[in-house]
Amino acid sequence: MSALLDIAGLTVALADGATLVEDLSLAVARGETVGLVGESGSGKTMTAHAVLGLFPAPGIAVTRGHIRLEGTDLATLPPAARRGVRGRRIGMVFQDPSSYLDPLLTAGRHIGEAFRAHGVTDRLPARVAAALASVDLPASAAARFPHELSGGQRQRVLIAAALALDPALLIADEPTTALDVTVQAGILDLLRRAARARGLGVLLITHDLGVVAETCDRVAVMYAGRIVEQNDVRALFAAPRHPYTQGLLASVLDPGRDAPPFAMPGGVPAAHAMPRGCRFHPRCPLALPDPCAAAVPPFAGGLACWRADAARAGAWAAA
């Protein structure tokens, strides 16, 4: 499949030089859903901000690499051209709809703003109704304010606004957080249908491996700003190769497993305190002083790990 989104060697850094994302390469094809997973602080959302050109604070910038959408390098576009891409070519679904929906505006007004921002003003009521129908909401929802909608309905309004102008790429950042299981299933089904029907490329950011298993075609595992493993979803779940991936999968509650969920020791390092070498080595049960603590492992064959051969036996078996 040809790449719709092609990120190559992306580095995002603070003004003082601390890196938030480092040398990240990732591709999303048309009609494909790619999961980007990892613990909080791994750099997943910062990657999305880099694609959108919207960083949450001043002093954060792309310092290296390319972000190509349909062949155009977004990182080199001037601000006005970048604004033209957001909404029209890239749709974004944020984590908490309550934080992104203005309580004083109706659902219809929110979706209408997506059209107005790109100069589309004709037949707005019909366009809004069609956008609502595409996410399985009635036209009457256009007159409701956010507090009159359930959590799942608010998330559907955000998805409707994100898809209103028929973008090529949708970035969904933790789109099912704080939703109950049945509502979550409906949102995930909606994203799957949108990807198939529209030929939409989807970058799904999540820490929930169950969501990845249900929704994604491929998955990239991110730790401390770097991708450590990337594979087809089925292959990765069947045989995870990186110790970090193995720890994440072991931490998932499995009713069919006698043992309790595994709790991986330690946490993701802060941007100003990244260890040398493999950034996972302080937490890894297989790490050696050389090379793990001394040099960054190359990313080759979908994996970045010096101890890949040892990890095949299960990195956490004796931990």
Summarize the structure.
With 319 residues, this protein is α/β, with parallel strands linked by helices.
Structure keywords:
single chain; 319 residues; alpha/beta; six-stranded mixed beta sheet; four-stranded antiparallel beta sheet; 11 helices; 30% helix; globular
How far is the N terminus from the C terminus?
40 Å
E-strand count:
10
Strand content: 15-25%
Helix proportion range? 25-40%
Shape: globular
What would you report as the Rg, rounded to the nearest angstrom?
A: 20 Å
Give the low-pLDDT segments.
none
Spatial arrangement of strands, main beta sheet: 6-7-8-3-9-10
Major β-sheet profile: 6 strands, mixed
SSE sequence, one letter per element = EEEHEEHEHHHHEHEHEEHHH
Q: Which class of secondary structure composition applies to the elements?
A: alpha/beta
The overall average pLDDT, rounded, is 92
Count of DSSP helices? 11
